Amino acid sequence: YFIIFSTIVLPPQLTIIALFQSLVQIGLYDTKTGLTLVYVAIQLPLTVYILESFFRRIPADLFDAARMDGYSEFEIFWRVSLPVAMPAIATTVILNFILLWNEFLYAVVLLTDEANRTLPLGIQRFMGDQLEDVGMVATGLMIAIIPVILLYAFFSEKLIQGMTAGAVK
């Protein structure tokens, strides 16, 4: 638990060189599989931290009662733990979606077409660091935020339940 939690404390810039070297050594540099593994590894500590603290608060009496009723460990998870933990799971899904959505379009541009891999750097170099098209930035922000707003609108009740679970007895 301490090792997983300590990865949240370290800034990502500290691990980028080691991550690059590891991906090159195992042959996953510049692949979609490597990118997927990196994103999962980056989001895993936060997800474990939230879910572990939530599952720890589930009373042991629920598990004992399910065992007395003859449920197997899988059935206890599927019929007892999972329904109780849905607010926490919805919270982690929303938080992960918000964090990963910010980089999704950038990753798609870089990985879908070989010719576009230098496009973001080229646009930055062409426009310069001083020029900002506020209208285009605002439009892009509005388009990019729509899925996050829709996800929050549909699951806001679960998100609030997950954030306040265990706060009131």
What do these coordinates show?
The radius of gyration is 21 Å and the shape is extended. The two termini are about 25 Å apart. The longest helix is centred in the middle third of the chain and has 40 residues, at about 75-110. It is an all-alpha fold and about 170 residues long. It is built from seven helices and no strands. Helix 3 (about 30-55) packs antiparallel against helix 5 (about 75-110) and helix 5 (about 75-110) runs antiparallel to helix 7 (about 135-165).
Structure, briefly:
This protein has 169 residues and is an all-alpha fold. The chain has 7 helices and no strands.
Estimated radius of gyration: 21 Å
Q: Strand share of the residues?
A: under 5%
List how many beta strands DSSP finds.
0
Helix/strand/pairing class, anyone?
mainly alpha
Q: How many helices does DSSP assign?
A: 7
How is the main sheet built? none
Summarize the amount of helix as a percent range.
over 70%
Topology, pairings included?
Elements lengths: L1 H8 L2 H14 L6 H25 L3 H9 L4 H40 L6 H9 L6 H31 L5
Q: Which features does this protein show?
A:
mainly alpha; 0% strand; 169 residues; extended; 7 helices
